[in-house]
């Protein structure tokens, strides 16, 4: 164990042992392996624990309380606990050529079996089809965070439901799952015969990792675990018969995007950006990525296109205006529409009532409905 802290391993583990899961009695000390402990000049302690992959979600929920215990140590001003999960020795990384069943085997399988199942549970039987009842899968992506991608995904999915399509919504933003809150979904999904049941809200069904883990838990997962979690959210959920499944991807171009395209055929992608050049640079990368993966880009959405004053009705272009439209024209992809910057949009996310439901006649509500109508038309055209 790497350590520069003036504390013994026994002292640290004794403190961790005082915080236990009330249902299982599990603690970070009993389930974790101390890998390192460092203290910087400001008294900030960082503790790294190796844990079993299948126990990571439950143990993450204990980290905040355990860190508070560590802060009682002499001269410690702040404590942080980082959980790492390693593949068992001898188990190789799954390759792009592996079958879905091979990639879905549990982490506890014999050496050489491969696959990550960070959410636990039994692996599907070999040859089990993925999303057999889903006709079309649409990804919502952005080149960078903070541009309103998840808000767009929620309102697009609910808007598609309002267009008469049987719609599902999957939150694949593993490190920052938020769609459960934005959809107003409370509690945990039911499990029937080993398969997770999506929650029903606002005319669609939805699943988010945020429904399964503590909201305060930090998802410090390596790439293979992210890919494993997405595979499980696709294959371990009873999505049923859907016309379209909307997938909210993490920002950027990384493991989650590659895992999704390798696992299922995408019917298209919607790219969300704000008008300014710095955001459009990243949006351009998103378009290029999907083109390289042979996924059709359904179009760009310009979010925060302008600020509409609620008092006088004057529009102010806080971040510029029209950048996404010009970028779409330059790249030869459709432009889906402009969404204004409104307090109602922020409030809808916090309240759990999507804008297309809570304020359908607002500037933002009408913009999202128009985007959903355009996407629905594209989906229906591709089905014929």
Automatic annotation (TrEMBL):
Domain of life, per lineage: Bacteria
Chain ranges of the MIP18 family-like domain: 11-79
Region of interest called Disordered, as start-end residue ranges on this chain: 89-127
CDD domains listed in its UniProt record: Mrp_NBP35
Keyword Iron-sulfur carried by entry: yes
Gene Ontology molecular-function annotations: 4 iron, 4 sulfur cluster binding; ATP binding; ATP hydrolysis activity; ATP-dependent FeS chaperone activity; metal ion binding
Keyword tags: ATP-binding, Hydrolase, Iron, Iron-sulfur, Metal-binding, Nucleotide-binding
Biased composition annotated in UniProt, kind: Low complexity: 94-111
Residues the record lists as binding ATP: 143-150
Subunit relationships: Homodimer.
Function as written in the Swiss-Prot or TrEMBL entry: Binds and transfers iron-sulfur (Fe-S) clusters to target apoproteins. Can hydrolyze ATP.
Family membership: Belongs to the Mrp/NBP35 ATP-binding proteins family.
UniProt name for this protein: Iron-sulfur cluster carrier protein
């Amino acid at each position: 164990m790497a350590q520069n802290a003036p504390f013994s391993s026994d002292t640290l583990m004794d403190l961790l042992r005082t915080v236990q899961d009330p249902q299982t009695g599990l603690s970070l000390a009993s389930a974790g392996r101390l890998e390192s402990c460092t203290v910087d000049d400001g008294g900030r302690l960082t503790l790294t624990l190796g844990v079993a992959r299948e126990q990571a979600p439950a143990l993450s929920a204990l980290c905040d309380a355990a860190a508070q215990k560590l802060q009682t140590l002499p001269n410690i001003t702040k404590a942080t606990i980082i959980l790492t999960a390693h593949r068992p020795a001898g188990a190789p990384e799954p390759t792009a050529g592996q079958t879905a069943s091979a990639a879905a085997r549990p982490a506890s399988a014999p050496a050489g079996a491969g696959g990550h199942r960070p959410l636990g549970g039994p692996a599907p039987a070999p040859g089990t089809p993925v999303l057999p009842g889903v006709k079309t899968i649409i990804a919502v992506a952005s080149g960078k965070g903070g541009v309103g991608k998840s808000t767009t995904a929620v309102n697009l999915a609910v808007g598609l439901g309002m267009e008469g399509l049987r719609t599902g919504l999957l939150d694949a933003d593993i490190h920052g799952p938020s769609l459960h809150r934005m959809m107003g979904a409370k509690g945990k999904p039911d499990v029937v015969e080993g398969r997770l049941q999506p929650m029903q809200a606002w005319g669609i069904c939805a699943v988010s990792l945020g429904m399964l883990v503590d909201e305060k838990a930090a998802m410090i997962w390596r790439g293979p675990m992210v890919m494993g979690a997405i595979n499980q959210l696709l294959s371990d959920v009873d999505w049923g018969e859907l016309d379209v499944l909307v997938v909210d991807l993490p920002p950027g171009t990384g493991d989650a995007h590659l895992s999704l395209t390798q696992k299922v055929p995408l019917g298209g992608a919607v790219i969300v950006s704000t008008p300014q050049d710095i955001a459009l640079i990243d949006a351009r990368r998103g378009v290029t990525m999907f083109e390289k993966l042979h996924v059709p880009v359904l179009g760009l959405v310009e979010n925060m296109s302008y600020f509409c004053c609620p008092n006088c009705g004057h529009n102010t272009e806080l971040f510029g205006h029209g950048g996404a439209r010009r970028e779409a024209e330059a790249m030869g992809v459709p432009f889906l529409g402009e969404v204004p910057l409104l307090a109602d949009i922020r409030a809808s996310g916090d309240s759990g009532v999507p804008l297309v439901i809570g304020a359908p006649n607002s500037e933002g509500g009408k913009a999202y409905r128009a985007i959903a109508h355009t996407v629905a038309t594209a989906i229906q055209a591709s089905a014929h």
